[in-house]
Specification:
The protein is an alpha/beta fold. It has a single domain (55-236), classed as Rossmann fold (3-Layer(aba) Sandwich), CATH 3.40.50. The chain has helices at 3-10, 29-41, 43-46, 48-55, 57-64, 87-95, 109-119, 157-166, 182-191, 198-207, 220-225, and strands spanning 77-81, 101-106, 124-128, 141-147, 167-177, 210-215, 230-236. A seven-stranded mixed beta sheet has the order 3-2-1-4-5-7-6, with helices on both faces. Helix 8 (157-166) links the parallel strand 4 (141-147) and strand 5 (167-177). The structure holds S-adenosylmethionine. Residues 33, 36, 40, 82-84, 87-88, 106-108, 111, 130-132, 147-149, 152 line the site of S-adenosylmethionine (SAM).
Length: 237
């Protein structure tokens, strides 16, 4: 795909009110992607471990990836899509079978360096890649975690279709995204990303080949207060 057709495909973007709050950036998708890459390469990316500790997300990740939550036992190939500093990859390595392969990719090389350092396991294969154009074969992953990434796409479809393509039929996806709530919109301002409405994201994910299996919450308090963003377990049809 040429750069311009890729840009067009990725930029069939919903603007305010259709499937989320607003576009975080007025330029083209390629300009925005470069901006996101620099953002995470720099100080903002370096601070993600600290902000994860302050918001509790470092610890909460472990509450999701576990038997009874997003259970990865029995999975042979796992993918951490846009792994950031390796928060979820760390738990995938801990909770997956000892012989399972964990693959993690990100757009930002500095985030990959941070992830490699933090995960500290030779069971994880890291790669630089864009979620809308993955360098993996069709149907090879049994389980995928995609945390807080789709909000960096003006239109989630190219990313979701790629995740569906590399997932085996019946494979599971743990999807976490910023919700279109007051708190979510503040996060969107801080991290220069968009937000999603639950029902709309569900409809689009189903359109892209996933079944929306169940919604998860970090804790009972999160469920009660409807806080923490959209966290859902999906299954590849
Ligand atoms: C908020 S961080 C989340 C990181 C990690 N998944 C987590 O939950 O801790 C977003 C990450 O997505 C990456 N990213 C943004 N757009 C991307 C794209 N188009 N392809 C791949 N990675 C992307 C950024 O570089 C950053 O590391």
């Amino acid at each position: 795909m040429s750069a311009s057709s890729f840009e067009r495909a990725s930029c069939q973007a919903p603007v305010r009110g259709r499937s989320g709050s607003q576009r975080p950036f007025q330029g083209s998708f390629l300009d925005y992607r470069r901006f996101v890459q620099r953002h995470y390469d720099g100080l903002a990316g370096a601070l993600t471990a600290l902000t994860g500790l302050l918001t509790g997300h470092e610890a909460l990740a472990g509450r999701l990836i576990r038997p009874g939550g997003f259970d990865v036992r029995g999975c042979q190939r796992l993918l951490d899509a846009a792994c950031g500093n390796g928060r979820y990859a760390r738990f995938l390595v801990r909770r997956a079978d000892a012989d399972a392969l964990v693959v993690a990719f990100d757009l930002s090389l500095n985030m990959l360096r941070r992830a490699r350092r933090r995960v500290g396991s030779d069971r994880v294969r890291f790669a630089a890649a864009d979620v809308t154009r993955l360098p993996y074969a069709d149907g090879i992953f049994d389980a995928i975690v995609c945390g807080w990434v789709l909000e960096h796409l003006p239109d989630p479809r190219p990313g979701l279709r790629e995740l569906a393509r590399v997932s085996r039929p019946g494979g599971r996806l743990l999807l976490l995204t910023t919700e279109d709530t007051v708190a979510g919109r503040w996060c969107g301002r801080l991290w220069h990303c968009r937000t999603y409405r639950r029902s709309e994201l569900r409809r689009i994910a189903e359109e892209c080949g996933f079944e929306w299996e169940r919604e998860l919450w970090f804790s009972r308090l999160h469920a009660w207060l409807k806080l923490g963003g959209i966290v859902a377990q999906l299954r590849r049809r």
